[in-house]
Design brief:
Number of strands: 4
Oligomer: single chain
Radius of gyration: 66 Å
Number of helices: 5
Strand order of the largest sheet: 2-1-3-4
Order of helices and strands: HHHEHEEEH
Length: about 250
């Protein structure tokens, strides 16, 4: 086999020239383009990573906001429920208080009506009892009963101390009239007799006037200048009526 060294040398030179040309005009621009593309890709990846991180940060912030809103919503719900419960308790307390006040007023009104009815009943019964007693006592009274009461009244006066007698008689100042009221009325003979008896018991110069008063029922009353003394079934019936009404009230 014969080798043409000149041809081989020329082909080698051509190949080297081709390699230089390819490196000069093709490889370096392509590598530059590839490098720039890689830089663009790296930048894109970096931007994407930044966007991903920003998105994750925004998502975390959004989640935190959602969590905060959920907590706030739950807190608002608890607050509203607490306010509703407090308002419900206030309304119930107010309703109970109004019901208690209304019940108390009703009880007071019922008690007042009952007390009024009982008072009317007591007074009516007492008035009826006193009226019956007055009627019976008047029918059973005689003229001699009036003298009995006058005698008891005279004895009561005599049993008084000097100071008490002086208070009854008071400063005369020229007044020397005593009024004696009885039930039933005294006869003329009885009046003359008691004129003398009372004048002796009281002492001094007294003009005694006699009268009658049916309210006494049976009894006597002496009107002195400063006060009066009385013993009668009428006053006893009045006291009995007060006691009857008082006893029923206490019951």
């Amino acid at each position: 086999m014969h080798i043409d060294w000149w041809t081989l040398a020329l082909e080698a030179v051509n190949f080297l020239i081709l390699v230089w040309l390819l490196q000069r005009f093709l490889y370096k621009p392509v590598m530059g383009i590839v490098a720039r593309r890689r830089q663009d890709v790296d930048a894109t990846f970096a931007e994407a990573e930044d966007a991903r991180r920003e998105a994750e940060a925004e998502a975390m912030t959004y989640q935190e906001k959602i969590t905060a809103l959920d907590k706030e919503r739950l807190e608002m719900i608890r607050t509203v429920r607490a306010q509703i419960e407090e308002e419900r308790k206030k309304l119930l307390a107010g309703a109970r208080q109004e019901a208690d006040e209304l019940l108390s007023k009703q009880r007071q009104a019922i008690a007042a009506e009952r007390a009024g009815a009982l008072a009317e009943l007591r007074e009516g019964a007492a008035d009826l009892a006193v009226s019956l007693a007055r009627t019976l006592l008047r029918e059973a009274t005689t003229v001699s009963v009036a003298e009995t009461f006058l005698e008891r009244l005279r004895q009561r006066f005599l049993e008084l101390s000097d100071a008490e007698k002086a208070r009854l008689l008071g400063p005369a100042k020229g007044q020397t009239v005593l009024r004696v009221v009885t039930a039933p009325a005294l006869t003329d003979a009885q009046r003359r007799r008691w004129q003398e008896r009372l004048s002796e018991s009281i002492g001094g110069q007294w003009t005694i006037e006699f009268g009658a008063d049916e309210d006494l029922v049976a009894g006597a009353r002496i009107h002195f200048p400063a006060a009066s003394l009385e013993i009668s079934w009428g006053s006893a019936l009045k006291e009995a009526r007060k006691e009857l009404v008082g006893d029923e009230s206490a019951a």
